[in-house]
Amino acid sequence: MLDKFKDECGVFGIYDRDGLDVSLLTYFGLYSIQHRGQESAGIAVSNGDEIIYHKGTGLVPEVFDEDNIDRLRQGSIAIGHVRHSTSDGNLPQNTQPLVTKYKKGNMAIAHNGALINASTLRDELENVGAIFQTNTDSEVMANIIARTSDKGLEEALKTMMSRIKGAYALTMMTEDSLIGIRDPHGIRPLALGILDDSYVIASETCAFDVIGAEYIRDVRPGEIIIITKDGLKSIQTPVPLESSFCLFEFVYFARTDSVIDGISVQASRREAGRILARESPADADIVIGVPDSGTTAALGYAEEANIPYAEGLIKNRYVGRTFIKPTQAIREQDIRIKLNALRRIVRGKRIVMVDDSIVRGTTSRAIVDMLRLTGAREIHMRISSPIIKYPCHFGIDTPDRQALIGANFSEEEICEQLGVDSLNYISIDGLLKTVESSGASFCLGCFNGKYPIECKGGCK
Question: Above 90 in pLDDT, residue 272?
Answer without folding.
Answer: yes
